[in-house]
Design brief:
The structure is a homotrimer of 159-residue chains. By secondary structure, chain A is of the alpha/beta class. Helices cover 40% and strands 17% of the residues of chain A. Chain A is globular. The model of chain A has no long low-confidence stretch (mean pLDDT 91).
């Protein structure tokens, strides 16, 4: 098979909501399981899914944002009905009951399937998130990386 | 015309907000009117658009979710300014005044135009929504169905 | 180079949140910088990014919506942590510190790069936004314009 015969898919993860990030990984891992070469671009709130979960930010504003918007795949809540964490707990429980893989396991599976993680460097700068605040195996990149991949992709999504 | 010459479009309906669901159907019906073969994948909150509107859920958590998140094309509210239903009423009124087709009619039109509705089985399991809670003419499917369609689509959207 | 050899990209801007609109322009301008022909479709809340910022609406409901949902690239707030404008101010400050171009400059750049702006006429009718409430250089169009462009695009996004 020629190099350019590999089918690609690109996903921008803009949202940091647990349910949307979860949907992004379901699609990414599904496509990777079909032998597609998947690239996920994490930008703005989406970076939360790649954060280790430590507090971030150095300037007063950055620290405030880091505190209000603490990242970590296990900590982010759903876009609806979070109610200060009750929703997150409820969804996890409901998903677990139905044997749905939790988000941290989905992320691990994505990496094992060869899904490429690119973190948006500009967002990291603005939100004062450093390389060491992110999990391992993440590349830093910019919009050019996305354009290049999306132009060659069978489908591209903004989530 | 050969089979593979038919142009396809794929739309993931993740949101359950009236305005976004409405946007999804505008695009789906528009594409179908141009003879494209359109598949809509309803997942997570998007399932609400396909629900009949009865209360759902069996476990205490499922019932609570069903109560807070009651579905039905005529019942869902906009992503902004809903204010417990006033926004929904206002938008319907403003749309009606401009002769914009209401959502239930849009859904009916989509089916008449041959748009394919696929409901995400995993989401249904997690949210305790049963086949009989959905309107007629909906297929059950998973991420594989989406990947297959999206890979052959002229455009794919996540709404 | 033949006409059809030009690569296209299509972006639906449905959201009126500052952060999402900003993301849309980052991608649009990035693609245009790579010589892609980019079309942005502004619909529903996304119209706010193209509004001059004056109050809109003629009917009582239209005026109320115009008041609650006042547009203008410099006025819209982020999807999270807006807190009545503090979030907007904070994000602008954080972006400015990192030398990130503010939204009005991004829009100007998009136009200079030849990005095509299409405003959804149906949304304008429903929301009672007139042509003269929008900035210059915007075409009016409908879903057919989007379908035509998206069908020929290397990637299409719904933001």
């Amino acid at each position: 098979m020629e190099e350019d015969a590999v089918e690609k898919a690109s996903i921008v993860v803009f949202s940091g909501d647990m349910d949307k990030v979860f949907g992004a990984f379901i699609i990414a891992n599904g496509a990777a399981a079909f032998d597609m070469k998947v690239t996920m671009f994490f930008t703005f709130w989406g970076l939360k899914a790649l954060q280790k979960g430590n507090l971030t930010g150095k300037s007063p504003m950055g620290r405030m944002l880091g505190l209000m918007n603490r990242g970590g795949a296990d900590r982010i809540g759903p876009s609806r009905f979070n109610f200060g964490g009750i929703g997150r707990w409820m969804f996890k429980k409901m998903m677990n009951r139905r044997k749905v893989m939790p988000l941290p396991a989905m992320i691990k599976q994505a990496r094992e399937l060869g899904v490429r993680f690119v973190a948006c460097e500009m967002s990291m700068n603005v939100m004062e998130i450093r390389r060491e605040d992110l999990i391992d195996g993440v590349e830093l990149g910019g919009v050019a990386t996305f354009i290049a991949e999306a132009s060659e992709s069978k489908f591209s999504l903004f989530i």
